[in-house]
Structures are given as C-alpha cells and as structure tokens.
Fold these 4 entries.
Entry 1:
Amino acid sequence: MKKLRFHLEAIIRDRYESDSLTENEIREWLLNMQKQDILKVETENDYWEDIPQDLFELFKTNIKDKNYEYTITKGHLRLEMEIQLEPEPDEES
C-alpha cells in the first residue's frame, strides 16, 4: 500500500480570533471547507495552488474520517494527512 503525505494550508477566520477556536469549531469549518479556501497543497515532490477536484474529494473524505493532524497560527490552518494512492491488493482465497 503506497501512501503519500499531504500538507494543506488554508486561512480560517480572522487571524486574531482563530487561535481561540475549539477543536469542534475547527472540525466543523473543515467539513464545510470549499476548494477555494485552500491556499496551497504540498507533497514531497509536488505543489498546487489550484488543486484538482478529485484530490479535493480525497481530502474531504479524510476529514470526515478524522484522518488528519492540524496546527493553527494567526488564522493559518495547516493540515497534514496521508492518503492511500494505490488500493490494497485483494487477498487470494
């Protein structure tokens, strides 16, 4: 199984009030996040400012599954998540 680690950056609310957001408020924002809310996405070898829709849908799925880590500083939300790129091979019976 091949996984790729993604680093996303987005602006969440005002830079002065965002540091006091609760974990539930951040999760709710992430669940409602739109593609245009993402400033950039990076991997070890790639960089996007306008991410493909398919990749955005994978991010949303990871968020729904709570498969991410985040930090927030002065309104900048930084997410890290791993996404499986290749399906796991089926076990032979």
Entry 2:
Amino acid sequence: MRPTAKQAVTHTDWPAQKAQIITFKSVNGLGTGVVKEVRWGLVWRDFVLEDGRVIPEHKILDHPEPPVWRKTEEVTQDEREARERRLVSMAEAGLDPRDQEQSFWAELNQYLAYTYLRFKQPGHKPPNAER
C-alpha cells in the first residue's frame, strides 16, 4: 500500500519532506508533485519527485527567501569529481540536457552554478544586481 501525500509545505516545516506535495514554477506554468527525496547538489537543494522530475529549491513556491546555497568551499573534491563523472555518464547515455525537469538538466545547472561561484571574484556583482 502506498502512503498518501501529505499537505503542502509551509516555511515552518521547510524543507519539504518525503511524501509532501509541492507546487513549483515550470516552463508550462505551475506544476505540482509529491516529494520522493530531497538532496543537496553542489549549490542548492533539489527535490526529486515520485514521477522522476527534479525541481530546484528556488523554483518551489513559498520557499524561504533567500534560498539556502552551499559555499563552494563546502564541496569536496571527491564530491565534485563524482558529479563530473555522473554528467559524463549521462551525456554518454544520450540523455537530453534540454528537458528542464529531469536529472541531467539539474546536474548540469548545479555544476555550472558551482563552477561560476568557484571562480567568481569576491565582491563582484552582476551588472543588473540590486544595489
């Protein structure tokens, strides 16, 4: 027997837990899904849904502001290399990186964000950043 999904998450019980329903922004508007797993990526949390979609924390409605991001120095070399091997494996398997709610897209975006943050000069802000 499958457990029933729990009610939607609120700030007080963040992050969402297994079997909770989340609502998120998608290329097709708003979507919902049931959380299967919450895992840390190289930079932010990803929410893996029961149907296999992977939703980054900052796309989930009512996530705490600002979202929690890891510091680049918290990521070990072994962890980074494991992510690189996983990306190579996904590419070799022919997965489509353009499917924005699948694991290849999630892994690729985490790696790109991590690489950018790792090499960004301290104190440098993008041209359109709030002042």
Entry 3:
Amino acid sequence: MKFYVDVHRGMRSVEGFRITYSTDGKAFKHVDSFSGIPAGPGDQLFVDTIPPSHTDGAIELLGRGVEVYYHLRRLTLLKKVRGELRLPKSARGDIRALMKIGERWFRRVTGDFLVMRRMVLVYKPLMKTHQQLLNKYKALSEAEREVLRQVIKSLEVHMEEVARMIVEEAGKRYQAYNRLVDGLGIRGNI
C-alpha cells in the first residue's frame, strides 16, 4: 500500500509539526509522529519532508519494513502541480499534488541517510554563524575584534567536535567513505 504524507507546522503537535497522510487522496488522517502511521512491511511511504525532530519516527518505519521515499525538495514542482490541479495550499492539497508528481521525484532513504542528515543539520547552522561572525569581525576595529575573537574560537571548537562525530558516524555507516578517506590518505584529518 502507498501512503502519501504531508508534514506541516501545527499548533497542537508536541514537536511543532503535524503529519497528515492518505492512501487514496480522499480519506485523510492526522498523527503527531511517523510511528503513528499504520504502515507495515512492503508498504511505501512518500513524504514531502522529514523534519529532524521526526527522524527517529521515520527510522522506526524503516525498521518495520516500510520503504520511505523523500521528495527531492523541488518546491516549485509541488507548487506547479498544485496550481495545475487547482488544489488549495493545504495538507490535503499537498498530498493530492504528491500523488500526481510521480515516483521519479522521490528518493528512497535509509536509516543511515537519515542519521547522517540529522548530524549535518547540526553542523550547518554552526558553520553559517561562524561565517557571519567572521564577516563582522573583518569590519570591526582591533579593540572590538577582541570580543568576537573569543566567540569565534569557541564556535570553532564546537564545529570541530560535531565534525569529529560526523566523521566517526560516516566511518561506521559507509564503507565507501572509508575507502575514499584511505585512498586519499586523509584519515584523521578534519
């Protein structure tokens, strides 16, 4: 059975997101977690997005034997299909649009992919903040730079810790990563 899922911000959900799903585009149900979707072995789940806070629920579905497919974030495509079908911008409209898009616009995900994605999502804002602080640092006088220098150093320490965690996890989960690192002779360098 195919499940089509829309994840959207909701006021009542504990984690800030509400999950709406349908198998036929006519009957819709709401849950607060992916684990609440009654999918079983051999079922396919097509989802528009997987927020980091719902990664464990998606991994639980994978553990049940459900194939999880993730929309390749072509929001313009979803918007275009919704417009062509004259669907409202709502969970129901998005689900009906997902049903029409076609499977080639989805990527089958694994537990390894979801765990690594969540870890990278921790690193990205650190990197963005670091770059913003460096840009501000360049515009300040020497006296003002001293204050920012300590903040930047602290952020770099945190970035290195997260990078080490990512490297360690990638080494455990992907043999191709290990072959690449060994082939390039960069093991131990972050």
Entry 4:
Amino acid sequence: MFLTAKTLRPDSLGSSDRPDRRGARYHRAHLGRGSAGSAVIPRIKEETPQRLETCGRVALGDRPERLEIDSTPLSTWPDVAVSSAAEGYVVAVAKDLTKPKLAESKKERLHRVDQGLSDELVALNEELQAQNQSLRAARAETVRLLTEQSSLVRRLQETLLDIPQELPGVKFAHIYRSATQQAQVGGDFYDIFEAKHGRIGLLIGDVAGHGVEAARTAALSKDTIHAFAHQFRRPQIVLREANRLMVEKKLPGFVTAFLGFLDPQSGTFIYSSAGHPAPLLATDGQIACLQSIGSPLGVFADACYRDSETVIGEGSLLLFYTDGITEARRDGDIFGEERLVDSLKRLCNRPVETLPSLLLDEALGFSRGLFRDDAALLCVNYLGKTIGQGPGRRKSEPSPVVRCDNAP
C-alpha cells in the first residue's frame, strides 16, 4: 500500500481516470470553490449518494474529507482523500487498497462458502438425526413385532402339541423337532383326546411346507379333524368331512393325516389314513404296519377314505411319526422305515416316556444332526383291556380287518 498526492490544477480541463506509475488511480478536474461534487470525481453521479455528498462538501468548504471509491469493474479499490487547498485547487491523496480489498473479498467469499457449508452440514446433521430417530423407532417397532411373533409362534406351537397329561388305559409320550432353528414351528401336529363312547382318539398329521404358514394350516387342520371326531364314530367319515371343508376353504397346500379310535375296554382300534405314513404296532417284539389307503386332505373334494380295524394286546406300543423321521438323509441315503422298525425293535422295552427322544436320536445320529423336514413322534402304550376279557385274549395278536363302507 502507498499514498500518492496529486494537485489538480484549474487548467487540467476534462476528466479521466488513469493510474500513476505506481498503479494508484486518481481523478483530475477543473474545480473552483463552490463547484458541485461531481466536478471533483467524474461520474460521481453514477456512484452512491453518500460519495456525491462527500465530494460536494469538499468543493464547498475547506475541511478535508475521505472517501473510498469502489472500482469493482476495474478490480481496484482506492481510498481517496480530497481537500480544497486554495480556490481552484484540490489535493487528492489516493491509497491503493486493492490487495487488502482482494484479500477481504476472498475472505468474504470463503466466509460465505464456509457459511454455506456450515448451513449444509447443519441441515445434513438434522436430516441424519431425523433418520436416526426414524431408524430407532423402526428398530423398536421391529423388536415389538418380533416379540409378538415369537409369542404367537410359541402359542401356535403349544396349540399344535397340546395334548392331555394322561388318559385312562394308556400311557403316552411325544416329541417334536423343527427342521430349522429359525422356523421354530412347522406343519407337523398330533393329538390324543377323549372321543365319543369312551374311546380315545389318536391323531397325527403333516402339512406340506415349513414355518408359520404351515403351522397355521396345521392348527386349522387339527381343530377341524378334532371337531368332526366329536360328531362321527368312524375315522373315515371324520376325514371325509374334514377334507370337504378344507377344500371348500381353499387352505394352502395339502395335509396328510392318520386318525384312529382306540376302545380302552376292548383294545379295538379302528383307523383310517389320508396319505400319511403307516404307524407301527409293537407287540411282544414283533412290529406290524397299520396300512390304510387314502388321499391327502385338501386336494380332492370327492376323496373317499377307508377304515381298518385291529385288536391291540395289553402292553402293545403304537408309534405314530411324520416323514421327517424316515426321510432324514445322509450322503444320498435316507433313514427309512426299515431303520425305524429296527430301532423300535431294539428300544420298545424302554419306558414309553423316553422312547420318542431315543428314536429321534437314532434318526439324528444317522443324519449327523441335520433334518430337512420337521419331525414328530407320538408313542402310545396300551395298558390293557379293562372289562369282559380273559387273560388269554389280553395279549391277542393284531388282526387287521378292512371295512369299506362309509356309514357313520
């Protein structure tokens, strides 16, 4: 920065802006005391009124004034001090403020940029806080829904596996294992319940699929079969009516089921199957399959089912299972019915309370602990006939009798 002093003489006619050799800019004009301010600095009218007023005061008096001239179009900013030294003369001292002005202008631009960035960061921070709050709310809602779902899953599982603690004339035990830890529930179900005329209803079923949807269908199927079992004496009629209703309601998938009625007083067991694996009957170390033919439920509205009948001896054991047991896999091989029969032969003398878990361990050991399907086991030990039978018939061999009529 530097100062440049110039004396403007009366004979310097006209006006111009020109730099001296140091780069300071000054103005020259013919000026007399009392002249208008526009004579001090040409084009002053184009500047702000404040500058015009300042130059006017200089021309009309003796007191010096200072003013800053913004020559932005020329990228220069001189600080000009003018005073009327004598009539017709004006002394102008110009101080070049270009560098500090440029620095100040850059600082202002940077400040504006910083301010803009700061405002943007503030807005972004507020947006992030709002998003975080939304995420926290969503996470809390997810936790709530998962908790409710877990509670629903537990209640649904309890419904599917809810059977009495005891019934007269029989002892029983059961176990269920889901195909995956994530699913927790599946489409397998079973039940043991008091039916009409003092009989005991034995039911097991399997819904195609896994998870909550399969469990929902399983619960509806179990309740439907259970309801018709209190209306009809014959298993085939119960399955027929349940099938018609399930087809009408268009339940997803299909359901295999096995239903039998055991008379604890006589040992008579009448049963029917809807495409379900045949239960096993163990008597004195001998194993028999309770075969019965029928279509899965929920597929054909006009499907027919058949009843079969046998007499169960005292101490005999009924094993109901789903195909998750027999289809346990290892290296392309399956556990299968033969291995299940062999396992039952070895273990049938164990207490019935421990038998389901022991048989499950057999299948898990074969498949190295992995199941592709849900698995369920229900073991029922018949304690013996209660009236009207002599000792010789208390241990009668199974004698299947096929009945094809559909009378209720």
